[in-house]
Amino acid sequence: MRRRVAACRPVRWLLSIAVVTAAVVAGWWLLPQGGADLPPGVTVRWRDFREVSIQTDGTLQPLVLGDQPVKLCLQTPVHLDTSQWEARLELADRPTVFEPPQTRLENSLCFSAAIPTDLPPELDTKLCGQLRDKFDGSLFDLPCQPLRYQADDTAYRELSADWKSAIAAREDDGLTSMLTELDAAARRAEATGLPFSSVQIQLISVYFLRLEGTPEAIATARQRLADLPDWLTDETAVWWAAQAAYERALLDFDTAPRSAWQHLKEADRLCLQVAHPIRFVVRMKQAEILSRIGAIQEAVDRLGGALADCRDADCNPILLPAAHGHLAWLLLLDPRSGPEDLEDAATSLDIAIAGLSAEDAPLEVADHLISRAYLRSLQGQDPEPSLQSARELLGSTTTGANRSRLLSRWTELVEGLAAFRSGDLETSLAVCNEVSRQAEVPNLAAWARSCAGRVHRAQGALERASEAFEGALLLHEHAAQGRLGPAGWLRPGQHSEDTYRAALVAVDRGDARQAWDILARLDDQWLNRAELTDDNRGEAAVDHQHTADRQQTVDRQQTVAERDALIRQLIELDVPASGARRRQRASIRRSLLERLQELGQTLNDGNRVQIHSDDSGLTFRALAIDNEILLLRRDTGGTESGGTESGGTVSLARRTPFSHRQLRETLEAIDQALEQQSSDNNQWRRLTLPLARALIPDGDPATRDVTVFALHGMLQGVPLSALPLHDKPSASGEAQWLGDVTTVALYPAGAGTMAAPTVDPAAQPAARPLFLVDPGTNLPSGEGLAALYRDLFPTSRVLQGNAATGSAFHHHLPTARWLHVDAHGQFDPAFPELSSLRMADEPISLVQLKDLRSAINFANLSGCRTGSWPTTADSGRYGLAGLFARRGAAWVIASRTDLNDRLAADFNRAFYTAVAKDMSEGTQWVPSAYRKAMQAVRRDYPAAAWASILFLRGTHGKQTSALATPIVSERRSNAAFQPAEAPETRLALDKGGP
After folding, report:
1. Rounded to whole angstroms, how far apart are CA atoms 820 and 313?
2. How many other CB atoms are found less than 10 A from the CB of residue 574?
3. How does pLDDT run across 273-289, given as a tens digit for each residue?
């Protein structure tokens, strides 16, 4: 709620005209008027003063030199609407007029004040002022900040000239001479009372030592950072502390990326306090780390957010080309990129190259030229002109030896990949093998091994191809280990493509079992890195390191509290607002979501116990790679040769040519049809028939009551149940869709592996179904469904309307036999961890559900997008539904798109009517009831309407004992969370694969 403060105002209508005129002449309206204290949580910090004087008690007092303007920055609570704030700053009691902030960055805003021309040469004074909210005229007094003003800045300017001269002479005199001169300048700065200048000079020397890149130079740079003064932690020194944290991050960037990430986080936090322009650089480096661990979409989002922030923040324009260049590289890394995406990448590269001077920034331009060469190779064009230009630039510079060497290796790799695409296999193999031998970073070596593997496969040397891809996978896994803790889920990227190619080679060799195991390994990598929490590690990890475990418990509690606070802040942002406020809070929301996502990974960190997912009930695995779709089948039963640990023989069921472009365009068309719930079944049949021919195996699918598929990567977008059995409509009553002849279930990665709490057998009889129905009282079907559930299951607990709260959900779920939810679902494609179910009081998000301790054996999440999640490289996560499947539910029903309320009501009536007739112990009744409900809706609705209803298999056929907006909506979604719309030296972005 906006706080309203009545400002002290003069009596207006009682004043005579003469008095008013006198007041105007005297400048009465500029005199300070009394205001209120700042709202709680608002902090005030200095920015853009050149120096400080260190007081006898060790505190820092800002020292303003010459006529440089000064700034006062406010950092506000995220829920506070500052979109119409303005301020007037008063230096030495010289009043000014109210002006809007000069700089905005998320929830920070900075106001500027010019130095009055009539100040004495030296002065101890204060910077004061007032804040005004134009929304209602509220006035707040800004706390006065003491400072010292000194008009004569000769010493500062002379010192600046000295260190700039030392840098200019570096090319001729060398690094050692430059460092000697910089050190002398730093000592002079200390002696003349310019401590900030001394720190600045030290950071400049660290920058050049880092560029030198030798072990000796890096060690010296680390020592110089360690020797920085202790007073750098003072809030007055935030500006330079942020740059020191950034330099620490870059020193660790390649050798200790986890440490680098922590330093970047600290730099980001400090930058935000004073809207520091270096934050743009920090976000760029964060995006690079994310891309290196395979989180390409997250990297794109972070980089795009940084560019968006530059609309209101004073980003250094010299850095924008690097950002556009890296954005282009990220698009090139994404295997899902189509021709339009490649054109976007080309545009970004044009901006990047045009914005740089090859003479001033040879390494940066060479970097972008290598990207352009790779792009041209992907587009079937000649990459050699761009490669030759890059080689010339790399050969013409003597700076940045390490990075120059790395870029040279990338140049060679692109040359090898281009030779492969042109059919020159011998050249490609020789080049890629040489890069593999010389590569100094794992991701580059992995790409090179993958290139060699593709050549060997093309030559028919399948054993050597298998060895090369295995080497690539080991390098990918090594590159991801220890970077940021859990790598999150594996998005499509070079790692996943190499995994699929390794499986493809196994199929070529006639070893379908190995192909199956390679894909299962991908699921297990995700499981052990991204999902398991310390208290879900299994019995093998319970009885050790009790002291450390207790500390972990405390840390976890603190992290959970911080996570919940972030969720509350996000909810507070979700209120109607003006256009200006919506634009302001977009970047705030993005930052909160990034922190929330990282906290979710922190909660899952620390697990080192290898646990393998249970895929014993899985019949098919499918993947798309190199213009083919492969379908692997496992026939259960028996342990003869070729069987897996779970039993059965693995074989290649189908191998179908299917171009990457055709698959991408088909899946996009399917998504559009699902969103529109197209009513034309014939059009749907024509659209999906090619996929049916690739994914429906030979033989009679009707022989299986339940058929379980694992879909890898892009194929997760295929609605299997709605694949046509025939190219034309069948006669009345005959089966038309795959779902007509078998119950199709999907296997999410890690299904059934999350240990839930042991349930006292004596308490099991008391367990009863839990129904939460229409929490917002805005579903047309809510009243009727609640009555149906009570009638069919008299002993169940049905919480309807305002009784269906989040607290009731948390309270009753641990003792529920199964769970049903009729509610609005919310899905955030940018930050899917914030996907949630809207209860009567507050949403229940996925990150909160991860902590649930329940033993339900079945969940029906009847809401919009409760099964939505971005495409992953493994067998999929499937949002809220996937979480319940991993938490021990044997079966989960959800929706991948918006869910029509009438269709949902018809489905649930048919489903629970069947349940009431057939329910028995265990969960065997669920697939049968699901199939009957799907038959009911298929009669009355087009395929595109019911195709989005997902059926997930959690545990294999057994129950584990472990585990409000008041509007009427025809769709069960309520999108409360909507996606959002440096120093002088340059930042060099290293090439990095996923």
Report:
1. 47
2. 16
3. 999 989 999 999 998 88
Tokens of 892: 């989960």
Taking the C-alpha atoms of residue 476 and residue 339, their distance in angstroms, rounded to an integer, is 27
Crossing angle of the two packed helices 257-273 and 279-292, in degrees rounded to 10: 150
Question: What DSSP line would sit under 383-441, residue for residue?
Answer: -HHHHHHHHHHHHH--S-HHHHHHHHHHHHHHHHHHHHHHT-HHHHHHHHHHHHHH--S
DSSP assignment of 312-325 equals TS---GGGHHHHHH
Q: Can you tell me the distance from the alpha carbon of 272 to that of 73, in angstroms, rounded to the nearest whole number?
A: 10
Other C-beta atoms within 10 Å of 912: how many?
23
β-sheet bridge partners, residue 150: 65, 122
One-letter-per-residue 3-state SS of 7-31: CCCCCCCCCCHHHHHHHHHCCHHHC
Rounded to 5°, angle at Cα 728 from 724 and 729: 80
3-state class (DSSP) for residue 644: coil
Closest CA to 660 of 296, 342, 300, 301: 342
Burial class (CB in 10 A: 0-12, 13-18, 19+), 233: exposed
Amino acid at 864: C
- AA identity, residue 239: W
Task: Specify the pairing of strand 103-105 against strand 60-65.
Answer: unpaired
Using CA atoms, how far residue 10 sits from 16, 20, 88, in Å, is 12, 10, 19
- Calpha distance 675→513 (Å, rounded): 37
Instruction: Bin 941: left if φ > 0, else alpha if -120 < ψ < 50, else beta.
Output: beta
pLDDT at 294: 66
Q: Is 147 helix (H, G, I), strand (E, B) or coil?
A: strand
**Amino acid symbol at 196:** F
Structure tokens at 337: 């990129």
SS3 of 973, please? strand
CA distance 648 to 513: 10
Q: Is the four-CA dihedral 581, 587, 593, 598 of positive or negative sign? A: negative
- Tell me how far apart the alpha carbons of residues 316 and 280 are, in angstroms, rounded to a whole number: 8
DSSP H/E element including 821:
strand 816-822
Q: pLDDT, tens digit, for every residue of 824-881? A: 998 876 667 778 999 999 888 887 787 666 778 899 999 999 999 988 889 999 999 9
Measured distance CA(822)–CA(27) in Å, rounded: 64
Dihedral sign for Cα 798, 800, 802, 804, please.
Answer: positive
Cα separation, 338 vs 368, whole angstroms: 20
Closest listed residue to residue 282, CA positions, set 993, 979, 830, 989: 989
Task: Check pLDDT > 60 for residue 968.
Answer: no
Contacts of 681 (CB under 8 A, 6+ apart): 729, 942, 943
Per the rule left: phi > 0, alpha: psi between -120 and 50, beta: everything else, 879 is left
Task: State the Cα–Cα distance between residues 248 and 245, nearest whole angstrom.
Answer: 5
How many Cβ atoms from other residues are within 10 Å of residue 824's Cβ?
A: 29
Which contacts (CB < 8 Å, 24+ apart) does range 599-603 have? Answer: 599/559, 599/562, 599/563, 599/566, 599/847, 600/563, 600/833, 600/847, 600/850, 601/484, 601/485, 601/486, 601/488, 601/530, 602/485, 602/559, 603/533, 603/556, 603/559, 603/560, 603/563, 603/847, 603/850
Q: Which residues contact 107 (CB under 8 A, 6 or more apart)?
A: 75, 76, 77, 78, 80, 82, 272, 588
**Where is average pLDDT lowest: 325-334, 624-633, 808-817, 845-854?**
845-854
Is 756:962 a contact under the CB 8 Å cutoff? Answer: yes
> What secondary structure letter does DSSP report for 531?
I
Burial level of 492, CB count in 10 A (0-12/13-18/19+)? buried
- Specify whether the CB–CB gap between 706 and 747 falls below 8 A: no
Backbone angles phi and psi of 679, in degrees to 5 = -95, 0
Token pair 């171009």: residue: 659
Separation between Cα atoms, residue 629 and residue 83, nearest integer Å? 52
